[in-house]
Specification:
Radius of gyration: 19 Å
Structural class: mainly alpha
Shape: globular
Length: 205
Protein backbone atom coordinates (compact mmCIF):
# COMPACT_ATOMS: atom_id res chain seq x y z
CA UNK A 1 0.00 0.00 0.00
CA UNK A 2 1.49 3.34 -1.05
CA UNK A 3 1.62 6.52 1.07
CA UNK A 4 -1.52 8.23 -0.33
CA UNK A 5 -3.56 5.10 0.41
CA UNK A 6 -2.12 4.94 3.93
CA UNK A 7 -3.22 8.55 4.46
CA UNK A 8 -6.74 7.64 3.34
CA UNK A 9 -6.78 4.74 5.81
CA UNK A 10 -5.48 7.10 8.52
CA UNK A 11 -8.41 9.41 7.79
CA UNK A 12 -10.80 6.54 8.44
CA UNK A 13 -8.97 5.60 11.66
CA UNK A 14 -9.25 9.18 12.93
CA UNK A 15 -13.06 9.10 12.67
CA UNK A 16 -13.70 7.18 15.93
CA UNK A 17 -11.02 9.28 17.64
CA UNK A 18 -12.90 12.45 16.66
CA UNK A 19 -16.22 11.01 17.82
CA UNK A 20 -14.66 9.96 21.13
CA UNK A 21 -14.04 13.62 21.97
CA UNK A 22 -17.34 14.88 20.55
CA UNK A 23 -19.86 12.66 22.32
CA UNK A 24 -20.19 11.97 26.05
CA UNK A 25 -20.03 8.27 26.91
CA UNK A 26 -23.28 6.56 27.88
CA UNK A 27 -23.06 2.76 27.82
CA UNK A 28 -26.31 1.22 29.10
CA UNK A 29 -26.62 4.02 31.61
CA UNK A 30 -22.96 3.99 32.65
CA UNK A 31 -21.48 7.46 32.33
CA UNK A 32 -17.93 8.22 33.50
CA UNK A 33 -18.52 11.57 35.16
CA UNK A 34 -14.96 12.89 34.97
CA UNK A 35 -14.53 12.04 31.29
CA UNK A 36 -17.96 13.36 30.30
CA UNK A 37 -17.30 16.62 32.15
CA UNK A 38 -14.11 16.99 30.12
CA UNK A 39 -16.00 16.24 26.89
CA UNK A 40 -18.68 18.80 27.72
CA UNK A 41 -16.14 21.52 28.48
CA UNK A 42 -13.14 20.93 26.20
CA UNK A 43 -13.84 17.82 24.15
CA UNK A 44 -15.08 19.64 21.07
CA UNK A 45 -11.83 21.58 20.75
CA UNK A 46 -9.81 18.37 20.82
CA UNK A 47 -12.23 16.83 18.31
CA UNK A 48 -11.77 19.87 16.07
CA UNK A 49 -8.00 19.41 16.14
CA UNK A 50 -8.28 15.73 15.20
CA UNK A 51 -10.84 16.53 12.50
CA UNK A 52 -8.62 19.22 10.98
CA UNK A 53 -5.73 16.73 10.90
CA UNK A 54 -7.98 14.21 9.16
CA UNK A 55 -9.10 16.88 6.69
CA UNK A 56 -5.50 17.76 5.87
CA UNK A 57 -4.79 14.14 4.94
CA UNK A 58 -7.49 14.51 2.26
CA UNK A 59 -5.50 17.26 0.57
CA UNK A 60 -2.17 15.53 1.17
CA UNK A 61 -3.03 12.11 -0.28
CA UNK A 62 -4.27 13.56 -3.56
CA UNK A 63 -1.29 15.91 -3.90
CA UNK A 64 1.23 13.15 -3.21
CA UNK A 65 -0.54 10.71 -5.55
CA UNK A 66 -0.47 13.19 -8.44
CA UNK A 67 3.05 14.46 -7.81
CA UNK A 68 4.68 11.02 -7.61
CA UNK A 69 2.34 9.25 -10.04
CA UNK A 70 0.89 7.00 -7.34
CA UNK A 71 -2.70 7.15 -8.55
CA UNK A 72 -4.36 3.74 -8.33
CA UNK A 73 -7.90 2.37 -8.52
CA UNK A 74 -7.61 1.42 -4.85
CA UNK A 75 -6.53 4.96 -4.03
CA UNK A 76 -9.53 6.47 -5.86
CA UNK A 77 -11.84 4.15 -3.93
CA UNK A 78 -10.22 4.72 -0.52
CA UNK A 79 -10.08 8.50 -0.95
CA UNK A 80 -13.79 8.74 -1.72
CA UNK A 81 -14.73 6.22 0.98
CA UNK A 82 -12.67 7.98 3.65
CA UNK A 83 -14.25 11.34 2.83
CA UNK A 84 -17.75 9.91 3.11
CA UNK A 85 -17.09 8.07 6.38
CA UNK A 86 -15.43 11.11 7.94
CA UNK A 87 -18.04 13.69 6.95
CA UNK A 88 -21.17 11.60 7.52
CA UNK A 89 -19.97 10.32 10.91
CA UNK A 90 -19.37 13.84 12.20
CA UNK A 91 -22.72 15.04 10.85
CA UNK A 92 -24.50 12.18 12.63
CA UNK A 93 -22.69 13.17 15.83
CA UNK A 94 -24.00 16.73 15.45
CA UNK A 95 -27.52 15.33 15.03
CA UNK A 96 -27.00 13.46 18.29
CA UNK A 97 -25.93 16.73 19.90
CA UNK A 98 -29.03 18.47 18.55
CA UNK A 99 -27.08 20.91 16.35
CA UNK A 100 -27.95 19.67 12.86
CA UNK A 101 -31.25 18.74 11.26
CA UNK A 102 -31.62 15.05 10.47
CA UNK A 103 -33.46 16.01 7.27
CA UNK A 104 -30.53 18.06 5.96
CA UNK A 105 -28.05 15.31 6.76
CA UNK A 106 -30.35 12.74 5.13
CA UNK A 107 -30.16 14.71 1.87
CA UNK A 108 -26.38 14.46 2.01
CA UNK A 109 -26.46 10.74 2.81
CA UNK A 110 -28.88 10.05 -0.06
CA UNK A 111 -26.55 11.88 -2.44
CA UNK A 112 -23.63 9.76 -1.28
CA UNK A 113 -25.66 6.56 -1.79
CA UNK A 114 -26.63 7.67 -5.30
CA UNK A 115 -23.08 8.51 -6.35
CA UNK A 116 -21.71 5.35 -4.73
CA UNK A 117 -24.33 3.32 -6.63
CA UNK A 118 -23.23 4.99 -9.86
CA UNK A 119 -19.62 4.12 -9.08
CA UNK A 120 -20.58 0.49 -8.44
CA UNK A 121 -22.32 0.29 -11.81
CA UNK A 122 -19.30 1.83 -13.50
CA UNK A 123 -16.98 -0.59 -11.70
CA UNK A 124 -19.06 -3.53 -12.90
CA UNK A 125 -18.31 -2.34 -16.43
CA UNK A 126 -14.59 -2.05 -15.75
CA UNK A 127 -14.46 1.69 -15.11
CA UNK A 128 -13.53 3.69 -12.02
CA UNK A 129 -15.16 7.08 -11.48
CA UNK A 130 -12.66 9.27 -9.66
CA UNK A 131 -13.68 12.31 -7.63
CA UNK A 132 -14.40 15.30 -9.87
CA UNK A 133 -13.42 18.88 -9.05
CA UNK A 134 -17.01 19.77 -8.10
CA UNK A 135 -16.97 16.77 -5.78
CA UNK A 136 -13.79 18.06 -4.16
CA UNK A 137 -15.35 21.51 -3.75
CA UNK A 138 -18.35 19.83 -2.12
CA UNK A 139 -16.04 18.04 0.31
CA UNK A 140 -14.24 21.30 1.16
CA UNK A 141 -17.53 23.08 1.90
CA UNK A 142 -18.65 20.16 4.08
CA UNK A 143 -15.42 20.02 6.06
CA UNK A 144 -15.30 23.82 6.41
CA UNK A 145 -18.85 23.89 7.78
CA UNK A 146 -18.12 21.07 10.23
CA UNK A 147 -14.91 22.71 11.45
CA UNK A 148 -16.85 25.92 12.11
CA UNK A 149 -19.55 24.01 14.00
CA UNK A 150 -16.86 22.41 16.16
CA UNK A 151 -15.52 25.83 17.12
CA UNK A 152 -19.01 27.26 17.56
CA UNK A 153 -19.27 26.53 21.34
CA UNK A 154 -15.97 28.37 21.90
CA UNK A 155 -17.08 31.30 19.75
CA UNK A 156 -20.35 31.50 21.67
CA UNK A 157 -18.50 31.58 24.98
CA UNK A 158 -16.23 34.35 23.72
CA UNK A 159 -19.17 36.39 22.39
CA UNK A 160 -21.17 35.85 25.58
CA UNK A 161 -18.33 37.15 27.75
CA UNK A 162 -17.66 40.05 25.41
CA UNK A 163 -21.28 41.06 24.89
CA UNK A 164 -23.01 39.98 28.10
CA UNK A 165 -26.58 41.20 27.94
CA UNK A 166 -26.50 41.56 24.16
CA UNK A 167 -27.67 38.25 22.66
CA UNK A 168 -27.34 39.28 18.99
CA UNK A 169 -23.60 38.46 18.58
CA UNK A 170 -24.13 35.02 20.19
CA UNK A 171 -27.08 34.42 17.86
CA UNK A 172 -24.96 35.47 14.88
CA UNK A 173 -22.48 32.70 15.68
CA UNK A 174 -25.14 30.04 15.10
CA UNK A 175 -26.56 31.86 12.07
CA UNK A 176 -23.15 31.73 10.40
CA UNK A 177 -22.98 28.01 11.16
CA UNK A 178 -26.42 27.49 9.64
CA UNK A 179 -25.44 29.40 6.50
CA UNK A 180 -22.19 27.46 6.07
CA UNK A 181 -23.99 24.16 6.48
CA UNK A 182 -26.71 25.30 4.08
CA UNK A 183 -24.02 26.04 1.48
CA UNK A 184 -22.53 22.58 1.92
CA UNK A 185 -25.97 20.98 1.47
CA UNK A 186 -26.51 22.94 -1.75
CA UNK A 187 -23.06 21.99 -3.06
CA UNK A 188 -23.74 18.36 -2.16
CA UNK A 189 -26.94 18.38 -4.22
CA UNK A 190 -25.30 20.20 -7.15
CA UNK A 191 -22.32 17.84 -7.26
CA UNK A 192 -24.62 14.82 -7.00
CA UNK A 193 -26.71 15.98 -9.94
CA UNK A 194 -23.50 16.66 -11.90
CA UNK A 195 -22.23 13.12 -11.25
CA UNK A 196 -25.54 11.57 -12.31
CA UNK A 197 -25.81 13.66 -15.49
CA UNK A 198 -22.23 12.97 -16.58
CA UNK A 199 -22.54 9.29 -15.65
CA UNK A 200 -25.90 8.72 -17.31
CA UNK A 201 -24.33 6.34 -19.86
CA UNK A 202 -23.76 3.88 -17.00
CA UNK A 203 -27.46 4.00 -16.14
CA UNK A 204 -28.75 3.13 -19.61
CA UNK A 205 -30.59 -0.15 -19.77
Amino acid sequence: MNLPNKLSVLRIVLVPVTLLFMLPINIFGWQPEGWNNFINTNGMLVAAGVFILASLTDAADGHIARKYNLITDLGKFLDSLADKILVISIMLAFINLGRLSAWAVMVIILREFAVSGLRMIAASKGNVIAAKMIGKIKTVTQMSALIYLMFEPLLMKICYKEFTGYPLPVCSVTIIGDVLFGICVIMTIVSGVDYLIKGKEYLKG
